[in-house]
Amino acid sequence: MSQSITLTYQKPSLSGDIKIPGDKSISHRSVMFGSLAKGRTTVSGFLLGEDCLSTIDCFRKLGVHIELDGNDVAIESPGVADWNEPSEILYTGNSGTTTRLMAGILAGSNVFSVMTGDDSIAKRPMQRVTAPLRKMGAKISGREDGKFTPLAIEGAALKAIEYDMPVASAQVKSAILLAALRAEGKTTILESVPTRDHTERMMRQFGLDITSTNRKITLEGGQELKATHVDVPGDISSAAFFLVAAAIAKGSRVTLENVGLNPTRDGIIEVMEKMGADFEIEMEDREAAEPSGTIHVRSSQLTGIVIEGSLIPRLIDEIPVIALLATQAKGKTIIRDAEELKVKETDRITAVVETLKKMGANIEATEDGMIIEGPTQLSGAEVDSYGDHRIGMMASIASLITEGSVVLNNSDCISISYPEFFEHLETISK
Ligand code: S3P
């Protein structure tokens, strides 16, 4: 059922505190690692978004016992070697992370399984994982020879590879590393641009020996994971919507607590700094696998900048809302080297440009990004989420500063990564 909502705000000054819900990437991985490890793993701060629930569902079908109690998760697993062969198809919903990381996990398991997802997943490229996994000896068949889902995977004995990554993708890197765990020999991955390192950090947390230096990651196969506790920090990709909201809604003053601040994910902080945003960060000073902190942000005058190169993977999921931010900055903002946006939940270059254009922004698509000229007074419009949670949230945040209402069609997809989004928006806009 697709929902349509009308967002009418009288240009409020935003104020208050929001506790940012769990990181999506880390929540997925906590269940994956907890299921691979024999014994009991516990997780706190887990994100109850639909994507992460899809991951839980897949592992339940593999015979892993998983209990949810609010944002706490308890995982009891017989260990990867003793999973059940699933009698049903593993359904990964809208989740690219589930689909691609599971491919790496299942390739070296002892079971035969079939994976498929929704209409968006059916369009997303899978060859980027099936090609390196096949090099490791994985037995994978799939639509158009494994370019797309559904994928059928027969667990097999794998061998280590040395792989030079053709795309900057943490999902591809992670799929290979997860397969490498069960492969014979030492796997080496070379990245041309560093991508989010949550998998490497969590491997260490589960007692594995992994080296990562200078864009080179090495893992010896056959190591045993040790069940443990995972504390998931808040998702900077979710915080991004409220960072931008407070930066562009005049007179705002907002505090965001529990924001994950992993240096491979904090590109939006660098962008806000360069644009002249007014914010302060208090880092949490306890020892943790993933750094986090509190951010205080106030509205301010912003200036356009160029966003490119190695900064792109550090903010890839924030580009829709950064484009909105740029509509309020003085001068030109150029986003380039971001062609990966075309293969996200939807083609995000097209979706962002069409949506903001409807609201009156001065924005043009380019081959690998977009050019935005600001500042522009945005106006209300009827827009669609394109079934993409991040487009839906970007349009909702835009409604805070539009002259007139925004009608957002297909708003329900927002629960994929941020079920409390509208509740939190209400809290600070009252
Ligand atoms: C993710 C990696 C990124 C990101 C996605 C989550 C992950 O995708 O866009 O939302 O959890 O590893 P790519 O690896 O395709 O860049």
From TrEMBL:
Pathway: Metabolic intermediate biosynthesis; chorismate biosynthesis; chorismate from D-erythrose 4-phosphate and phosphoenolpyruvate: step 6/7. It catalyses: 3-phosphoshikimate + phosphoenolpyruvate = 5-O-(1-carboxyvinyl)-3-phosphoshikimate + phosphate. The active site is at residue 317. Keywords: Amino-acid biosynthesis, Aromatic amino acid biosynthesis, Cytoplasm, Transferase. Its main location: cytoplasm. Its EC number is 2.5.1.19. Phosphoenolpyruvate binds at residues 24, 96, 124, 171, 348, 390. Gene3D superfamilies: Enolpyruvate transferase domain. 3-phosphoshikimate binds at residues 24-25, 29, 169, 171, 317, 344. It is an enzyme of class 2 (transferase). Pfam families: EPSP_synthase (PF00275). It is found in: Cytoplasm. Residues 13-425 form the Enolpyruvate transferase domain. SUPFAM superfamilies: EPT/RTPC-like. One of its GO terms (molecular function) is 3-phosphoshikimate 1-carboxyvinyltransferase activity. Belongs to the EPSP synthase family. Monomer. NCBIfam families: aroA. Catalyzes the transfer of the enolpyruvyl moiety of phosphoenolpyruvate (PEP) to the 5-hydroxyl of shikimate-3-phosphate (S3P) to produce enolpyruvyl shikimate-3-phosphate and inorganic phosphate. This is 3-phosphoshikimate 1-carboxyvinyltransferase. It comes from Chungangia koreensis. The gene is aroA.
